[in-house]
Specification:
iron; transit peptide; alpha/beta; globular; 27% helix; EC 1.13.11.18; acetylation
Length: 298
């Protein structure tokens, strides 16, 4: 049965985006950890449902120490094959850049959904290894980067783009990046939600200017208003889930389906331990992860 699933997955990679197999949370959670690691690096070559020849090349990558997902996107039909990385991790920069090289892509952006507290971003290290790459983070985060974005901004890569949506609450500077809306953009849309929405969960709200009320409002106004078939790709997962949809989370998310007061009560009583990396990660990520860049680049 396992062999059949793998063959089925392989056969689907060349299908248009709206017909492709996407690993479901239920299927992913039932697989062995070794197979999940392999599937986390599976490629989806995606094509818009229109007659346009524009194609999005997509990879979902995993960093096991912090359970962080990094996402590689590129306009594969553009002559330059421009690409970007969402939420790169310093520990896996070499892997990510090797993949970019193997695929013949031109990396132009290294972007973060927020100032992470559980790992050091790889954006600064990437800049030292690939001249010309620009780092991106939200202006509201008050962190350093080459480009500071705000709600409504568009991050263009080739003929494709990501729309910036402000989704504060986990931190004051959280944003969600959403693939473009239009006949010339890949469909269904994809939302890279950082820690604002996790699969069947959400990020904590008890540090870095977090607010349960603000997170609830952000999710319901900026993410749950997207088409229900929009894919949700979070910054982390701790149970082996890989992807969800807006419609799924609106139905099954055990926190965000509650009314606002119940949600605030849940978040205030999580009793989570202090993040072990926060004292290192936050200061480093405020300066694009460049806290020890000379020794790392050596």
């Amino acid at each position: 049965m396992l062999r059949f699933r793998c063959l089925w997955l392989s056969s689907c990679l060349s299908l248009p985006f709206n017909q492709q197999f996407i690993p479901s949370p239920i299927l992913s959670s039932s697989l062995s950890s070794s197979l999940r690691s392999k599937m986390a690096a599976v490629s989806y070559s995606t094509q818009s449902s229109s007659s346009s020849s524009k194609k999005l090349l997509f990879r979902q990558l995993f960093e096991k120490e912090s359970s962080t997902y990094t996402y590689l996107l590129a306009d594969a039909s553009h002559p330059d094959k421009p690409a970007l990385l969402v939420d790169p991790v310093d520990r896996t920069v070499e892997r990510d850049l090797s993949l970019v090289k193997d695929l013949g892509l031109k990396l132009v952006y290294a972007i973060n959904t927020h100032v992470h507290a559980d790992h050091v971003t790889g954006s600064g290290l990437i800049k030292t290894k690939v001249p010309g790459v620009k780092s991106i983070i939200s202006k509201a985060s008050k962190a350093s980067a080459d480009i500071l974005v705000e709600a409504g901004d568009k991050i263009q890569f080739g003929d494709l783009y990501l729309e910036v949506r402000a989704t504060p609450g986990h931190t004051v500077g959280c944003v969600t990046y959403v693939t473009g809306d239009g006949a010339d953009q890949p469909q269904p849309r994809m939302a890279f939600t950082g820690d604002a929405v996790l699969i069947r969960g959400c990020g904590r709200t008890d540090f870095q200017g977090g607010s349960s009320q603000q997170l609830y409002e952000s999710v319901h106004s900026q993410i749950f208003t997207l088409p229900e078939d929009t894919f949700i790709y979070p910054a982390h997962d701790y149970k082996g889930f890989t992807v969800s949809t807006v419609g799924e989370e609106m139905l099954y998310n055990p926190r965000l389906t509650k009314d606002e007061e119940t949600f605030k009560s849940i978040m205030e009583n999580l009793k989570l331990s202090y993040p072990k990396m926060i004292d290192v990660a936050v200061p480093a990520n405020m300066v694009c992860g460049l806290q020890d860049v000379e020794s790392k680049a050596a």
